[in-house]
Amino acid sequence: DAGITQSPRHKVTETGTPVTLRCHQTENHRYMYWYRQDPGHGLRLIHYSYGVKDTDKGEVSDGYSVSRSKTEDFLLTLESATSSQTSVYFCAIRQRGIYEQYFGPGTRLTVT
Amino acid sequence: DAKTTQPNSMESNEEEPVHLPCNHSTISGTDYIHWYRQLPSQGPEYVIHGLTSNVNNRMASLAIAEDRKSSTLILHRATLRDAAVYYCILRSSGGGADGLTFGKGTHLIIQP
Q1: How far apart are the CA of A106 and the nearest CA of chain B, in angstroms?
Q2: Does B103 touch chain A if contact means CB atoms closer than 8 Å?
Q3: Residue B4 · residue B68 · CB < 8 Å
């Protein structure tokens, strides 16, 4: 299994509070991704990174920011959480020149 | 992005072959066909990918129509562990860091 961990694995927070989710990899892969998955939907891309300090927006980036100061860590921040951001968040990594993405175990976030 | 169409659900018996169809009539010449699956409460898992020729690996086989407008993922001998949502995804071979576009996939049910 690819070395990807996500923390926390579960979180309950209140509307309006900031939240940061962490994705950590031990594979030294160049590309990292954040997706969200809601009931009845496939995964949707939030943001991605193609190197340290290099990030770009995905399909559903509003309300989210990301940072990547080290190869191994990709942080997803909800500046002011809303109930619509209740979801399961998956991180993924991909090696340059390789098509397969490897996914983490997910973080279940509930915003009350 | 070119879209894919999959049946919402399929049912099969344990130890029998399973053929999961995917239609992608607007596929472009540079699009690879990827398959991922998602077991309950887990992140997606890469299964297989191909461009024009049929592909085999330890998990499955991918049969691609000659006109590339459809493909079939073949599980040669289904086990209960193969019960999952299977996603057929097109991704351009143009490289780049962009992520995957997931549809709703096919929910595969395996009967013992």
Answers
A1: 6
A2: yes
A3: no
B21 touches chain A (CB under 8 A): no
Dihedral angle of Cα B23, B25, B29, B35, to the nearest 10 degrees: -20
Task: Return the ∠ at Cα A28 (arms to B99 and A4), rounded to 5°.
Answer: 65
Q: Is A101 touching B (CB cutoff 8 A)?
A: yes
A59 contacts on B by Cβ (under 8 Å): 101
Q: Which residues contact B41 (CB under 8 A, 6 or more apart)?
A: A106
Only one residue has tokens 């992140």, namely: B43
Q: How far is CA B45 from CA A1, A19, A85, B34, B84, in A?
A: 10, 27, 24, 11, 10
**Of the partner residues B97, B98, B105, the one whose CB lies closest to the CB of residue A42:** B105
| A56 vs A19: CA distance, rounded Å | 20
Per-residue pLDDT of A58-72, as tens digits, reads 999 999 999 999 999
Residue B94 pLDDT: 60
Per-residue model confidence as pLDDT tens digits over B77-87:
999 999 999 99
**Average pLDDT in chain B:** 93
Residue A35 forms contact with B (CB below 8 Å): yes
Instruction: Tell me which of A101, A102, A107, A108 to substitute to probe the interface with B (most B C-beta atoms closer than 10 Å).
Output: A101
B37/A contact by beta carbon, under 8 A: no
B9-13 and B106-111: which strand pairing? parallel
**CA–CA distance, B89 with B103 (Å, rounded to integer):** 8
